[in-house]
């Protein structure tokens, strides 16, 4: 079983400022840092650090070498990564003295994936292989359609929840991995699409997960709820995994760490219960460290933890 993550790659440009810039104002920043980011990159690194081989497909721009270097340094296969003569996807982040942040996203190369690239990349994968997707690239519907036709297992992290998700059929997804906010937003969209007007919407995260499953009975759902744990739901199984209590420093990569570790464990044919416990431990370790991809632990650390 091979794992392909067709996902986003971003350069995070973090500016330290006293206060956020106001309309019409020019200010000086006190510091500028560059970090590797994007949910796709973070999740590939998590899969690799969890001990599973992973191929990363996507696009970077002429300024994106630091991203491909980060993937290579984490022993991730990059032969399906393309470099284009346009800017790399990036985020401009202001961080104020009070610790607040505001973020401006630019899709860049993440939005320049072509149907030809998708077709050529998927030709190297077979039925039963895992395809991991997030909603930070273009042509998501084409990717899902072609992977479904090949019989691949499709794991979708629908983040962020945007209009693009209306173009896809959740009946073609093997497993939906999402947090409480995404579950509520996606449930509302699917409820509106398939239920009569006036029907009461589910309220709690678990109710949203069960509602999504009732609308798409073949769909496995993995719902993460931060310190309240996580839930797995399918036709045959319901399992709750508690969160491990830690002193959190930075929760940025918690969800991506959980996703990567879960998928790596599934690819080794571990049980859902074992996969969720390992993923919960990995994300607990990650939140005790600052940063995104740099906070993701190696599997040896996870197995030795507690």
List the helices and strands and how they pair.
Layout lengths: L2 E4 L3 E7 L14 E7 L1 H11 L5 E6 L4 H9 L7 E3 L6 E6 L5 E6 L8 H8 L7 E5 L5 H11 L2 E5 L17 E5 H15 L10 H11 L4 E5 L5 E4 L4 E4 L12 H14 L4 H15 L12 H6 L2
Parallel strand pairs: 1-4, 1-8, 2-6, 4-5, 8-9, 9-10, 10-11
Antiparallel strand pairs: 2-3, 6-7, 11-12, 12-13
Helix pairs in contact: 1-7, 3-4, 5-6, 7-8
Characterization of the model:
- The chain has 306 residues and is of the alpha/beta class.
- Helix content is 33%, strand content 22%.
- The protein contains nine helices and 13 strands.
- It has helices at 39-49, 65-73, 115-122, 140-150, 180-194, 205-215, 254-267, 272-286, 299-304, and strands spanning 3-6, 10-16, 31-37, 55-60, 81-83, 90-95, 101-106, 130-134, 153-157, 175-179, 220-224, 230-233, 238-241.
- The strands form two sheets. A nine-stranded mixed sheet has the order 5-4-1-8-9-10-11-12-13, with helices on both faces. Strands 3-2-6-7 form a four-stranded mixed sheet.
- Strand 11 and strand 12 form a beta hairpin.
- Helix 1 (39-49) packs across helix 7 (254-267) and helix 3 (115-122) runs parallel beside helix 4 (140-150).
- The longest helix has 15 residues, at 180-194.
- The model has no long low-confidence stretch (mean pLDDT 93).
């Amino acid at each position: 079983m091979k794992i392909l993550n067709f996902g986003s790659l971003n350069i995070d440009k973090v500016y330290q400022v006293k206060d956020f810039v106001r309309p019409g104002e020019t200010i000086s920043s006190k510091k500028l840092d560059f970090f590797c980011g994007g949910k796709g990159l973070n999740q590939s690194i998590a899969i690799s650090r969890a001990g599973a081989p992973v191929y990363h497909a996507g696009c970077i721009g002429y300024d994106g070498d630091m991203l491909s270097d980060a993937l290579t340094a984490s022993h991730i296969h990059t032969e399906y990564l393309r470099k284009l003569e346009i800017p790399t996807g990036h985020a401009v982040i202001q961080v104020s003295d009070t610790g607040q942040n505001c973020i401006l996203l630019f899709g860049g190369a993440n939005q320049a994936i072509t149907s030809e690239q998708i077709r050529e990349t998927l030709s190297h994968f077979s039925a039963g292989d895992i395809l991991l997707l997030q909603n930070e690239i273009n042509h998501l519907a084409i990717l899902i359609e072609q992977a479904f036709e090949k019989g691949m297992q499709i794991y979708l992290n629908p983040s962020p929840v945007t209009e693009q998700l209306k173009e896809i059929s959740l009946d073609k997804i093997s497993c939906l991995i999402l947090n409480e906010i995404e579950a509520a937003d996606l449930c509302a969209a699917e409820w509106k699409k398939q239920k009569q007007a006036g029907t009461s919407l589910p309220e709690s995260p678990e109710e949203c997960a069960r509602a999504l499953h009732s609308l798409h009975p073949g769909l496995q759902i993995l719902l993460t709820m931060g310190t309240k744990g996580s839930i797995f739901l399918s036709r045959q199984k319901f399992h709750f995994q508690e969160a491990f209590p830690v002193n959190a420093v930075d929760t940025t990569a918690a969800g991506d760490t959980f996703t990567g570790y879960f998928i790596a464990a599934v690819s080794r044919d571990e049980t859902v219960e074992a996969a969720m416990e390992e993923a919960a431990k990995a994300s607990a370790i990650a939140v005790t460290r600052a940063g995104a991809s740099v906070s993701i632990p190696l599997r040896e650390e996870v197995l030795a933890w507690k």
